[in-house]
Specification:
This is ABC transporter substrate-binding protein. It is found in: Cell envelope. Residues 74-433 form the Solute-binding protein family domain. Residues 1-26 form the signal peptide. It holds the Pfam family SBP_bac_5. The structure is a single chain. The protein is 22% helix and 24% strand. The chain has ten helices and 21 strands. It starts with a strand and ends with a strand. By secondary structure, the protein is of the alpha+beta class. The chain has helices spanning 51-60, 109-121, 168-171, 230-238, 250-255, 299-308, 311-317, 349-358, 388-402, 415-424; strands spanning 3-11, 16-19, 31-36, 65-67, 74-76, 81-84, 90-94, 136-143, 146-151, 193-199, 203-208, 221-226, 244-245, 262-265, 272-278, 323-325, 362-363, 369-370, 378-384, 407-413, 429-432. The chain has a seven-stranded mixed sheet with strand order 10-11-12-3-13-2-14, sandwiched between helices. A six-stranded mixed sheet has the order 16-1-15-21-19-20. Helix 9 (388-402) links the parallel strand 19 and strand 20. It folds into three domains: 3-11 and 270-432, Dipeptide-binding Protein, Domain 3 (Dipeptide-binding Protein, domain 3, Roll), CATH 3.10.105; 16-44 and 50-55 and 179-265, D-Maltodextrin-Binding Protein, domain 2; 63-168, Dipeptide-binding Protein, domain 1, CATH 3.90.76.
Length: 433
């Protein structure tokens, strides 16, 4: 899609709150209860793009390679070793014997080949992660232990293919990927947990995969309970109904400072918040889609919007100081790759107004600007109902752009509705991350 991102505000604190555990009687199952506020868009790994959905997917399915927890370098996933040709166009991955699907069937190179091939030939299967296979020329399983991938050009992500590998003996029977919910329990997977029960927007239950190749999880059961707001999730934590809460706001985090039995974790986060500008959404083949405001194709307008928003004020007033200015999509916690431009992106509303004046975006009698083509500068800003941050920052953006002579209609919608609108290009501005 043709979109532009700016003003990423990197979360400085992973606001995770852990309830001090109560020792369980001997032989009793140990369960971790986690509160979530974001909807799970799909349990189908070919379709899920939400944070909640993809994190649930990671519990169910492994990738070809994984990441070291300290510095993110590639480590063993389903493949234990790999090598590439000198021209970096052919990659060979070796999947050892002994790794099994949760139903006892062996995991082979044919499962990985099936997964990637399905994404290459089925556009729906490429919905979530198709960019990883877009330049693949062929994928073959030379035998049960050897996977060979040939690419049309060198690809930097070959050791970071964030694609859940699915079992061929299950998914080869699926006739319609787009309609397959993947919620018939128990779901066959390769990850540390096995899905045992799911009710959309209510709860998700897992049991430990005792035969997981990395070793059995420390918890026997894992439950995610859905709450419409982070306030409700925090209240559930205080009542002892859940053990862990994430994605809360600074006020909620501060409110738990003296809560008995609660431990707060304040640490550098690995995610960021951003404002996405629809600068001309299009399909992968370049066909325009959606109904974004045409003025947003003008770089002068996009830069003016960026100059008019005070990121430091958002960090102070909305994030409560628990954030850092974003300078790109890679958070500061990744020190080797984080970019700090000099000078930093300026906050200069006076310059933004002057830029729009010079570019011919004149103000009407009511103070609202009109594009040179005669269209009023009225924009829609979509935000997640599951995040208080979006609503609060949306009002901040609305006031900031009002000073530019741009009207902003803040629309706080469900996660699924926001996903549908952003995918279809039917937005002007949207909060993402």
């Amino acid at each position: 899609m043709g979109i532009r991102r700016f003003g990423a505000v990197t979360a400085a604190m992973a606001m995770v709150v852990l309830l001090a555990p109560t020792p369980a009687p001997a032989q009793q199952a140990v369960t971790l209860r986690v509160a979530i506020t974001q909807q799970v868009d799909s349990l189908n790994p070919f379709l899920s793009i939400f944070q909640a959905g993809t994190e649930v997917g990671r519990l169910m399915y492994d990738y070809l390679t994984a990441y070291d927890v300290k510095d993110q370098h590639p480590v063993e996933g389903l493949a234990s070793r790999w090598e590439s040709s000198e021209d970096r166009l052919t990659w060979t991955f070796h999947i050892p014997e002994g790794k099994k699907w949760s139903d006892g069937q062996p995991i082979t190179a044919k499962d990985a080949a099936f997964t990637y091939d399905l994404m290459m030939r089925d556009e729906v299967a490429a919905t979530a992660n198709g960019s990883f296979t877009a330049t693949f020329e062929s994928v073959t399983a030379a035998d049960d232990r050897t996977l060979v991938i040939k690419t049309k050009q060198p690809q930097a992500t070959m050791l970071a293919l964030d694609v859940p590998i699915v079992p061929e003996h299950v998914w080869s029977k699926v006739t319609d990927i787009g309609e397959y919910r993947n919620d018939q329990v128990p779901v066959v997977g390769s990850g540390p947990f096995i899905l045992t029960e799911y009710r959309a927007n209510e709860f998700i239950r897992f049991k430990a995969n005792k035969d997981y190749w990395r070793g059995a999880p420390k918890y026997d059961e894992l439950t995610f309970s859905y709450y419409k707001t982070s306030d409700a999730a925090v209240q559930a934590l205080a009542k002892g109904e859940v053990d862990l809460v994430n994605r809360m706001g600074p006020a909620q985090f501060d409110s738990l400072k003296d809560e008995e039995g609660v431990t707060r974790n304040k640490a550098n986060g690995r995610r960021f918040n951003e404002l996405v500008i629809n600068s001309g959404a299009a399909t992968r083949t370049g066909e325009p889609i959606g109904d974004g405001h045409p003025a947003l194709k003008d770089v002068v307008v996009r830069r003016a919007i960026a100059k008019s928003i005070d990121l430091d004020a958002i960090i102070d007033r909305v994030n409560g100081g628990y954030a850092q200015r974003g300078t790109g999509p890679i958070p500061p916690v990744f020190g080797d790759y984080h970019l700090t431009p000099d000078p930093a992106h300026p906050y200069d509303p006076a310059a933004a107004n002057a830029d729009l004046d010079r570019a011919g975006y004149a103000r009407g009698a009511d103070g609202i600007r009109v594009s040179p083509e005669g269209r009023r500068m009225e924009l829609r800003l979509l935000g997640h109902a599951s995040r208080a941050y979006d609503e609060q920052t949306g009002e901040f953006v609305k006031r900031s752009l009002a000073d530019l002579g741009i009207v902003v209609d803040v629309q706080i919608v469900s996660d699924n509705q926001l996903n549908e609108s952003s995918t279809a290009g039917t937005f002007d501005l949207v909060f993402s991350g």
